[in-house]
């Protein structure tokens, strides 16, 4: 079995992200891993967090999205700190989510990416895409996908 020294966890506002973070916490305990909690604020808000839930106007989107991401990351960070896991948080702006995840994985020398999958199908998947599928397709390191 691989030793995962650095785990990158991609999170958004969904409950499945919190489940992915819980998986990361358990693995980090076993491997004594450093963890980076990441949120990507996408160029196109429709491909990242559910835009219409975050802010009522495009001009407010980035301010609200940034604050929501920081709040979410800091909330999750407490769980890792409580269990003695070394953790950092990072927010990436201005790129598609899968690209932001891969950039953060490269910058942090991550050994493993953990993320949730929303399980979109049909037209919803066609319109919104699948960040998890994109990351799986381009990642040179292992990716653990947590499903609902």
From TrEMBL:
Location of the UspA domain: 4-147
Main location: cytoplasm
Keyword set, alphabetical order: Cytoplasm
InterPro entries xref list: Rossmann-like_a/b/a_fold, Universal_stress_UspA, UspA
Domain of life: Bacteria
Compartments reported by the entry: Cytoplasm
SUPFAM superfamilies with a match to the protein in the record: Adenine nucleotide alpha hydrolases-like
Cytoplasm found in the keyword field: yes
Family: Belongs to the universal stress protein A family.
Protein name listed in UniProt: Universal stress protein
């Amino acid at each position: 079995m691989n030793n995962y020294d650095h785990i990158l966890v991609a999170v958004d506002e969904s409950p499945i992200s919190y489940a992915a973070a819980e998986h990361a916490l358990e693995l980090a305990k076993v491997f004594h891993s450093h963890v980076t909690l990441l949120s990507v604020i996408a160029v196109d808000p429709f491909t990242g967090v559910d835009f219409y839930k975050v802010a009522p106007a495009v001009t407010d989107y980035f301010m609200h999205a940034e604050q929501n991401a920081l709040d979410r990351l800091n909330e999750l960070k407490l769980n890792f700190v409580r269990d003695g896991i070394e953790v950092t948080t990072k927010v990436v702006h201005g790129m598609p989510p899968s690209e932001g995840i891969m950039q953060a994985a490269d910058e942090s020398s991550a050994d493993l990416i953990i993320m949730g999958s929303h399980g979109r199908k049909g037209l919803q998947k066609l319109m919104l895409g699948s960040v998890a599928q994109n990351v799986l397709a381009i990642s040179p390191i292992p990716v653990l996908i947590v499903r609902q």
